[in-house]
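Justification of resources, computational component.

The compute hours requested in this renewal are based largely on the per-chain cost of generating structure records like the one below. Each record pairs the submitted sequence with a full structure-token output. That output is archived, and it is also reused by downstream analysis tasks.
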Amino acid sequence: MARLLPGCSSVWLERLVWDQEVLGSNPSTPTTYRKDGASGGIPMKRIGLILGALLLFSPMAYGETAKAALYNAEGKEIGNATFTDDSEGVRMVLTVGELTPGLHGFHIHAVGKCEGPDFKSAGGHFNPLGKKHGAKNPEGAHAGDLQNLSVETDGTAHVEWVVKGVTLGPGENSLFHPDGTSLVIHANPDDEMTDPSGNSGARVACGVMTQ
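The structure output for this chain reads:
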């Protein structure tokens, strides 16, 4: 569903459409009304202008989807993730395999670069507000702090989460800031408190987010 940018009210949109019709239209151009021919109907031209303006100010104007392919330390692709703008943040769907069973720390990192085998090129956690690490930390959490990833006995995991407090559009919390972002899976569970990464150990998989 189309959404206006902050500060762009429906009244403003109506005025924009009126200006285009009255000030920018050709008086000699006939107006087409509703199919039933009733007087006072909404001109088809007006409907077109409204739909065009809604599209202009919808999240689609900024690229409302993203993706990431995840690679292990050997450079093998082991999973993928998709991202979609959501009313509460960004919806992420992840499918991954070839991991050790159990819990793994899982975060969004602040640099869109995954150079193996240690993936340190991905930088620290995405943290535009300068908070401490972890949902259990009274001074946390990082915007890039995610739940622990639970891997099945066959080495696979599939999750669908809404990552709150981030966006695919513009702004300080954008996952597409100038340095980009990456998804990183760690070897150990995240204790959700200890800076900088919850004692979650080595980085075992990494994927750069792209649009």
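The beta strands are 65-72, 77-86, 89-96, 102-104, 106-109, 149-151, 157-164, 182-186, 203-208. The CA atoms of residues 108 and 144 lie 4 Å apart.
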